[in-house]
Recover the amino acids of this structure.
């Protein structure tokens, strides 16, 4: 072999492909969970999914996954072939999701390097019981015996790639030792090695990784390959090799016509042995007889009879002109529209783009360019082109990292289904804007917060069926998960039509825990302030601890995770009608547009999205409170003022408001004014985290490197407004 077979990469591909299949499976099932039954397309899709997972798991020797997927495949095979009536749909949905959970958990173990040792006995027994029930009770099971789930080779059609003048065609017949185990995997190793040189490659049996039984066929009948490549026979033999698994390799060169004949996969008989000498004698005798009969003209038109050599294949096509496709079916030059890329490589590429942005700033802001009288016209043109290319490159890389929220929303759909079933509530789940795209890192941070919000909506928000009927609500309980983009932010909302938040109950709990200020009446707190109490650690109005709530940690986790990525949580509620929990999060965490400003000898950056206005103010516009608080009157509105120099205890900053610049910031409908010494300009900022050994400072979210090599701190507007 040219290279060793990489079982680790095979395992990675197994996990990647099956994870995608399971996601599609869950999406399909949840889309039709409220229907009367699965439609025909869904039944076929679920059957194919289980068949693929069963085959690949068998190759990888994950016996428990193979067994449970095979049993669910049996169920859907019966549904597909027998079309029974009266199938309990909700029960079937639960069985499918149970299998999906089991396989997902086993795959998580495999990813973590642990053995896939889960016990599927109970799941298989339940599926057996369910299958027997629908066979006995369904109309499809009464008319006769059920059709057995027998593997059939898929039918394909073959279109050969265009061959060049240098292309050569080979027929290869590989014999494995009878004691070789997993011959199909060894056969795949051979195909994997030959793909390095192949323009086209066809092989039989074809389902090496999805049909665990083809290993026996390979041992019994051998492994056949048709190869189109620009290489010699010696190179082919060197790539295949003969080792502990391969006993013998026959390689014979043929012409393009013989290559295009393909294989007849319907014929399971072993290849017949050809007697070279007798075959050649017969052909020569026929040619001589024709010459003696004077059929010279016919001989000129007669195609040259191919020379038969040992190992040539005798092909009896059952369907003339419809050869079987085994490998490539695209003309050479066509490429796949999508490829899979490791996420770590994407992260590395994003880091390199960040360094490029920093290097660009260093070049364009170099002190060497500030020499008086220096003509920089050509440099400025080149710099503008570089900046344009850099911006386009950032946009492309950012778009590559953007992924839709569909999968995340589908997970929430699953949570609503599971929790509502266990709580006995009839709840409808609606998704709006699930195609909205955000950075992959953002999705990883919002999965847990969304899970808590959705569980709270089902457990806390939606009443029981009896309570809804008693209060006169005729519609079903409803949870709506929606997403939209606005001004560089993503808004994700969880809305329910339940009871809403109880202001008095929250205030009573807050008073009991000592959260309320002394001598401040309850009426002084607006609804928004009261609702924010539920996000405090240990705060819960649920009197009983259940599987889903009551410990007072859910909303605290939500706020912590959202604030960690520069987001915020807004809560709206109407008693008796429901609540809306809204997450406001950035589109990305990597590169932002920011305004660079200076305070004393320190540099700061503020994201442009929260800055509403720059303004110069006079001293007579300021209001000074006895307790030290300051406010400024701007066009009849009063705003609190933060002097950034005082806030962080800096030195040598401008104390006079008339010598500085005031920035009006708006966060969640709250506005403040920030006083800085001067503005440097707008710049693309590469966000770097503050090192973990530095204590977290309120109002700071990260740091960045400026063009002159200095470090600037990135201000966190929500932290300043609080």
């Amino acid at each position: 072999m040219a290279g060793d077979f990489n079982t680790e990469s095979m395992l990675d591909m197994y996990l990647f492909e099956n994870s995608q299949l399971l996601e599609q499976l869950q999406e399909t099932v949840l889309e039709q969970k409220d229907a009367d039954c699965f439609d025909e397309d869904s039944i076929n899709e679920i059957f194919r999914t289980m068949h693929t997972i069963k085959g690949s798991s068998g190759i990888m020797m994950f016996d428990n996954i193979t067994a449970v997927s095979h049993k669910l495949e049996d169920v859907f095979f019966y549904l597909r072939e027998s079309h029974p009536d009266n199938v309990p749909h909700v029960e079937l949905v639960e069985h499918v999701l149970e299998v999906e959970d089991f396989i997902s958990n086993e795959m998580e173990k495999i990813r973590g390097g642990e053995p896939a040792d889960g016990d599927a006995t109970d799941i298989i027994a339940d599926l057996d019981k369910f299958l027997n029930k629908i066979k006995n009770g369904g109309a499809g099971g009464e008319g006769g015996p059920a059709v057995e789930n027998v593997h059939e080779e898929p039918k394909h059609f073959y279109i050969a790639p265009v061959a060049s003048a240098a292309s050569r065609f080979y027929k290869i017949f590989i014999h494995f030792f009878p004691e070789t185990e997993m011959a199909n995997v060894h056969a795949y190793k051979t195909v994997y090695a030959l793909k390095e040189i192949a323009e086209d490659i066809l092989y039989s049996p074809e389902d090496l990784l999805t049909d665990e039984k083809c290993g026996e066929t390979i041992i019994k009948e051998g492994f056949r390959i048709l190869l189109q490549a620009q290489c010699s026979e010696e190179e082919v033999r060197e790539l295949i090799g003969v080792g502990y698994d391969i006993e013998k390799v026959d390689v014979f060169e043929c012409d393009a016509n013989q290559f295009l004949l393909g294989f007849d996969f319907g014929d399971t008989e072993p290849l017949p042995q050809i007697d070279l000498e007798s075959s050649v004698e017969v052909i020569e005798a026929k040619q001589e007889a024709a010459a003696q009969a004077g059929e010279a003209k016919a001989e000129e038109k007669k195609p040259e009879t191919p020379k038969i050599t040992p190992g040539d294949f005798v092909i009896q096509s059952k369907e003339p002109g419809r050869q079987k496709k085994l490998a490539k079916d695209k003309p050479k030059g066509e490429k796949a529209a999508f490829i899979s890329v490791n996420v770590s490589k994407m992260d590395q590429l994003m880091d390199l783009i960040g360094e490029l942005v920093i290097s660009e700033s260093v070049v364009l802001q170099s002190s060497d360019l500030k020499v008086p009288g220096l003509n920089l016209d050509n440099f400025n043109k080149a710099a503008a082109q570089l900046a344009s290319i850099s911006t386009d490159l950032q946009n492309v890389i950012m778009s590559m990292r953007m992924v839709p929220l569909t999968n995340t929303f589908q997970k929430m759909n699953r949570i609503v289904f599971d929790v509502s079933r266990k709580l006995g509530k009839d709840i409808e789940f609606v998704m709006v804007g699930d195609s909205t795209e955000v950075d992959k890192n953002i999705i990883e941070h919002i999965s847990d917060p969304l899970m808590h919000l959705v569980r709270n909506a089902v457990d806390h928000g939606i009443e029981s069926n009896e309570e809804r009927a008693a209060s006169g609500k005729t519609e079903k309980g409803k949870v709506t998960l929606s997403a939209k983009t606005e001004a560089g932010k993503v808004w994700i909302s969880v809305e329910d039509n339940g009871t809403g938040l109880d202001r008095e109950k929250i205030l009573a709990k807050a008073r009991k825990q000592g959260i309320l200020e002394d001598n401040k009446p309850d009426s002084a707190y607006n609804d928004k302030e009261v609702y924010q109490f539920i996000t405090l650690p240990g705060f819960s109005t649920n009197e009983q601890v259940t599987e889903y709530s009551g410990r007072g940690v859910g909303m605290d986790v939500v706020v912590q995770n959202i604030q960690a990525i520069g987001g915020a949580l807004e809560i709206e509620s109407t008693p008796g009608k429901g609540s809306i929990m809204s997450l406001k999060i950035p589109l990305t965490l990597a590169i932002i547009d920011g305004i660079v400003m200076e305070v004393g000898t320190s540099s700061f950056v503020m994201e442009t999205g929260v800055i509403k206005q720059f303004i110069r103010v006079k001293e007579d516009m300021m209001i000074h409170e006895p307790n030290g608080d300051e406010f400024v009157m701007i066009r009849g509105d009063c705003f609190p003022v933060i002097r950034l120099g005082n806030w962080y205890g800096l030195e040598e900053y401008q104390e006079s408001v008339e010598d500085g610049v005031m920035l009006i910031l708006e966060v969640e409908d709250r506005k403040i004014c920030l006083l800085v010494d001067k503005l440097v300009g707008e710049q693309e900022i590469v966000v770097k985290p503050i090192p973990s050994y530095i204590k977290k400072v309120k109002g700071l979210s990260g740091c960045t490197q400026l063009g002159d090599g200095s470090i600037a701190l990135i201000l966190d507007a929500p932290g300043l407004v609080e």
Residues 529 and 590 are 32 Å apart (CA to CA). The radius of gyration is 35 Å. The chain has a mean pLDDT of 77.
